[in-house]
Specification:
alpha+beta; tt1808, chain A; six-stranded mixed β-sheet; five-stranded mixed β-sheet; globular
């Protein structure tokens, strides 16, 4: 078991530490934040989404579920619940930088971060086209997408609905997201 550093880490030191750690940590401005384990419901939802994305993704796209870091700034790394990258392969084997789709499945411990800090960080990425925030307590998804003018729009779905997936040229339905969950 590794002891958390007591002082701020550089991004390079974070990557070395994280490669040796049994626990995943997000990194914000030199500080590590341990990632809590998810619930069965959280895992099923993120797996349903990732499996569907993988089934329709072009060969050039990469789909990740929870285990790949995303570098959103020089000193900020997150672990999105689901991430799709359709740009050139990253030179660094430990993180991606140009996702087109990002998904966070809400949990009590991360809800505030997902709705504020991560949303602002994800929407600042030039490559990001779609950010989904998925509820685990009811059939509800917040869909943020970039319109033709590059402005972010919001549509909320409850119960049913379809979500266009721009870089995958497909559509994700709420029943697909919540399959075998409720």
């Amino acid at each position: 078991m590794f002891k958390l550093p007591e002082q701020a880490l550089s991004p390079e030191d974070y990557l070395v530490f994280e490669a040796q750690s049994e626990t995943r940590h997000e990194y914000i401005g030199g500080t590590l934040h341990a990632m809590a384990g998810g619930t069965i419901r959280h895992n099923r939802i993120s797996l349903n989404i990732a499996a569907y994305f993988l089934s329709i993704a072009p060969e050039a796209c990469r789909v990740y579920q929870e285990g790949m870091k995303l570098r959103v700034a020089e000193n900020v790394f997150y672990y999105p619940d689901v991430m799709v990258v359709c740009h050139k392969p990253e030179q660094n084997p430990y993180f991606e930088t140009e996702p087109c789709i990002l998904v966070e499945v809400l949990s009590q411990s991360t809800k505030d971060i997902d709705l504020r800090e991560k949303m602002l960080s994800y929407k600042s990425l030039p490559s990001a086209e779609l950010y989904l925030i998925v509820d685990t307590e009811r059939l509800a998804v917040r869909q943020y997408w970039r319109d033709g003018e590059g402005k972010w729009q919001l549509q909320e779905h409850a119960g049913d609905g379809d979500i266009a997936l721009p870089c995958l040229s497909g559509v994700l339905s709420l029943p697909q997201i919540y399959r075998n969950v409720f």
